[in-house]
Amino acid sequence: MRTRLGMLIRAGASNREMTAALGVNIELLYTFVFGLGAVLAALAGLMQAPIQTVQIGMGENILILGFVVIVIGGIGSIRGAFLAAIFVASSTRSAAPSCPICSAWS
């Protein structure tokens, strides 16, 4: 099921000038998409807050590991990112018992 809004978003993402030439307000469309993403992120935060303790810097370890996976696997390669994720996960899990710094990541 494809909606008109979804088609406009895809058209604006692929060819901004042509979509604007067809009469679509691109700035309003991008603002709406950004706002929708912010609302969904806030909703996810509201749902996660009662389950986990909310603190400053939460999620840093996941972001750093995700960056490491992207660097090792390659930015445009899904297969490389998958293999890098398996490599990083197995290496951190196997190093955790002997390395106190590595155990903080798990």
Total of DSSP H or I helical runs spanning 4+ residues: 6
SS elements, strand count: 0
Helix and strand run: HHHHHH
The outline comes out as flat
The protein's oligomeric status is single chain
Specify the biggest β-sheet. none
Compute the separation of the termini in Å. 40 Å
Uncertain runs are: none
Give helix % range: over 70%
Specify the structural class.
Answer: mainly alpha
Average residue pLDDT:
86
Q: Please give the radius of gyration in angstroms.
A: 20 Å
As a percent range, the share of strand residues is: under 5%
Can you characterise this structure?
The protein has 106 residues and is mostly helical. 72% of the residues lie in helices and 0% in strands. The protein has 6 helices and no strands. Helix 4 (60-73) crosses helix 5. The radius of gyration is 20 Å and the shape is flat. The N and C termini lie far apart (40 Å).
Topology, pairings included?
Elements: H1 4-14, H2 16-21, H3 26-48, H4 60-73, H5 78-95, H6 100-103
Summarize the structure.
By secondary structure, the protein is mostly helical. It contains 6 helices and no strands.
Keywords:
mainly alpha; 6 helices; 106 residues; 72% helix
